[in-house]
User: What shape does this take?
Amino acid sequence: MSYMIDERDVKFVHLEWLKVEELCKLPAFAEYSADMFDMVITEALKIAKNVLSPINAEGDQVGCRIEDGQAYAPPCYKDAYKTFVENGWIGVSVNPEYGGQGFPYTIGMQAIELFSGSCTSFSMYPELTHGSAHLFEVFASDELKKLYCEKMYAGQWAGTMCLTEANAGSDVGALTTTAKKEGDHYRISGVKTFISGGDHDLTENIIHAVLARVEGAPKGIRGVSLFAVPKIRVNPDGSLGEPNDVICSGIEHKMGIHGSTTCTLNFGENGDCIGHLIGEENQGIKYMFQMMNEARLYVGIQGFAMSASAYLNAREYAKERIQFVHVKDMKNPDADPVPIIQHPDVRRMLMFGKAMTEGMRALLMKTAYMIDLVHYHEDENERQKYQGLVDLLIPICKAYSTDQAFRVAEAAIQVYGGYGYCSEYPAEQYARDIKITSLYEGTNGIQALDLIGRKLAMKGGMLFMSYMMWLNEFTGAYGEHEGVKDLVEKFIAAKDTLAAITMGFGEKAKGPEAILAVLNACPYLEMFGHVVVSHLLIEQAAIAYDALIKIYEQKGCIEDKKVQRALIEDHDDAKFYYGKIQSATWFVNNMLPHVKAIAESIEAGDTSALKVVF
Ligand SMILES: Cc1cc2nc3c(=O)[nH]c(=O)nc-3n(C[C@H](O)[C@H](O)[C@H](O)COP(=O)(O)OP(=O)(O)OC[C@H]3O[C@@H](n4cnc5c(N)ncnc54)[C@H](O)[C@@H]3O)c2cc1C
Assistant: This one.
């Protein structure tokens, strides 16, 4: 089986829930329409299904190689890359000034769900290129922008993000790569590890975004600067010059993403690596931070996208695999065995996959939508409001989604039974490929620290207050809604619990008990994630309920439960809306109670993990 996506849910999210066409009311998108958005998603889906999905397993099996200091992507990526870039897929939401198509970020992120879900290792090459080109577009001099951006967005040249070193992983400020000023450029020297797409044979050049320390810079992150370092030097007219003393000294052999080269790069081993400062000296982390929201959202989408396909593949398998009689026929020796999808425990696992992946799509696409409003809303106050919400939600988008995505893939393996463990079926590759998403772009532990240490404290706690106001508006609007009022009632209790724990963290922040918040940062992020996803799923369920009632009315069966059930079985929309309500109901009844449990464990104030002698 290959890439699968719930196209109906994608349509629902964009058209019925987010109402993306509203973005066309903003001057930035006045020339676009819902039909144009739909066309992009439809075409992206074709690329995902016809070009990327077929190379996913092969890339995983063949992997990458290195020979004489040159790394190679799986050969099957070559043609796919050509098709991908020729059709402009790096530039969906890129500024038309640099050859992009200028679509909303939300539409770009939806395309990324499709590309990441169908072949994550492949899609990392263009996505990292997009990330570094965007960094240059925003912060580099006009001269460098002119030299790099268009060719990178067109996919002619690739890009990377070079932060990590052997002794500077989570602690980026510990990096030791140096930059020595020499006229209008710098000489770069140091070794970067774990660089995705650090070297490969898909493009003629690679422009590395490298963090390094200028001589005499302050210690730690305050002394970090950002440089553009080409693999092959670029002449002022844009043509390629000499190699730039950037040597790929090795590639990693990893658990997953086998088609993505993960490189050790030696910069300036022969003293001849030239880099160009981006922006000002010692501002590198500030620039990276400004790009971080989008990079972290991307990684959240990456993990989620694979888990959504893992779940759908498992669901289809469960419809085919015959094993055991139905539980109600246990004592009947003549009963026929049934497809495993009829067994309650299998349904439980699939329901987790369905509700969780719909919830993650809701969270990630809503955040992408809010990023569009941050960039393009005409009212400064609204831009500020959405910026605050995005800042608060980003660590949850990244860490909650990637942790849950791995669990969804694990459940998918379980649905397959022993076959799930074998490479004949896709679930095990999804699980292996998803795992990295909880590690890079700041481990999920670091995301949780960002949430409790930075985001909750930002603007004197205003981000959280603004989030609570949003939730209060939601509970006010839906508290009496016939279809979801029971869910809203349970939600209010969980929301209040989250608020109480958050206030508790705030009160203890300066005292000796502050360590408890640090110790519980990850469970706190998880409970926060459950609340966020419940909210969005209930909102979707309300829309689905209204739509379902309309269908019943149209079919004249508003009182007839039997006909309603038949519709749910056979009518595509009725089935979808009913399923949406079940997703929210399941989530509120099965995931949301974890909020209370996590709160109890935090309030217990247990410090065993700090006291124990390991
Ligand atoms: C396949 C792959 C691709 C990658 N691609 C890139 C890339 O393109 N560019 C790039 O620059 N890097 C890349 N990385 C590096 C990645 O971002 C780092 O691995 C990650 O930041 C973690 O650093 P580390 O591995 O050194 O772990 P460490 O920093 O040693 O962390 C180990 C553990 O300790 C925890 N920890 C560390 N400090 C704290 C703390 N203060 N409080 C609580 N817990 C803490 C971490 O959460 C983690 O669980 C990649 C890594 C891999 C494996």
